């Protein structure tokens, strides 16, 4: 009887640790902060799941998109800046006309939790992906589902789109394997595994030909996608409790923002492999970062709910928002 009780307790502790770890990783991987394409506005999800939109120059809050029954998880501006898309915890995708802030289209995703929301370059389509590996292409203009692709890989952690080739995605599973997938033809382009450690985060270079992978041993490895050739390895020193949980290329592709498990941000110059900046919050963890489209500003969102906008050239904070 005692044996069964102890086994039951250990089972509960295991699942608690697993889901707690997944929940924490999911916070780092959410796209919950974004600049407008012209760099004048910033939208982010606050700690209550509401979307707040601020004018950066004036520091004024111009709109709160709130729903007392749901929480927003992912947001994205269309490339032309006319629309803002949001996804809530009921898998409802809402497309808002920016400025008027009225929904023009609402889609309902029937799959498991959505882990990707991205407008495509033509402003006409939205790409979403679910934890079960279902990828959907939504036609914003016609208001309908255009394409469904099912990729059957177990334990998917995140899916990200190629910034240059939007019908190409990278799929990272919890075992540390990443697969680059062509969703137009539903075929595998490249699979990457690291023998020295587990892949923990991924990002495509802005030009679309290179994939960056963060590894549990603290290194960032850059790969040529089509040939599979290793281009560069950057040793960041993020090991033993400081493992990398997310990486983000700057729009120029020259720099990379790295978030580690300690909730701190490092900015690396890729060509020289040099650390150029550290960003941290006192008594708080940094969960999200995003660059402005010109790469001059970096938005940093912390667990205390604050968003700080850094002017990178002068290393100054120009706005603190909440």
Structural commentary:
By secondary structure, the chain is mainly beta. Strand 14 and strand 15 form a beta hairpin. Helices cover about 10% and strands about 50% of the residues. The strands form 7 sheets. A 4-stranded antiparallel sheet has the order 1-2-3-4, with no helix packed on it. A 4-stranded antiparallel sheet has the order 5-6-7-8, with no helix packed on it.
Strand content: over 45%
Total of helices: 1
- Please identify the top-level CATH class of one domain: Mainly Beta
Main sheet properties: 4 strands, antiparallel
DSSP E strands, number: 28
What is the CA-based Rg, rounded?
19 Å
Distance between the termini: 52 Å
CATH topology (level 3) name of one domain: Methylamine Dehydrogenase, Chain H
Helix coverage percent of residues? under 10%
Instruction: For the largest sheet, list the strands in their spatial order.
Output: 1-2-3-4
User: What gross morphology would you assign?
Assistant: globular
Classified in CATH, the superfamily of one domain is: YVTN repeat-like/Quinoprotein amine dehydrogenase
Average of pLDDT:
88
- CATH architecture classification of one domain: 7 Propeller
Structural class: mainly beta
Low-confidence stretches: 5-29
Order of helices and strands: HEEEEEEEEEEEEEEEEEEEEEEEEEEEE
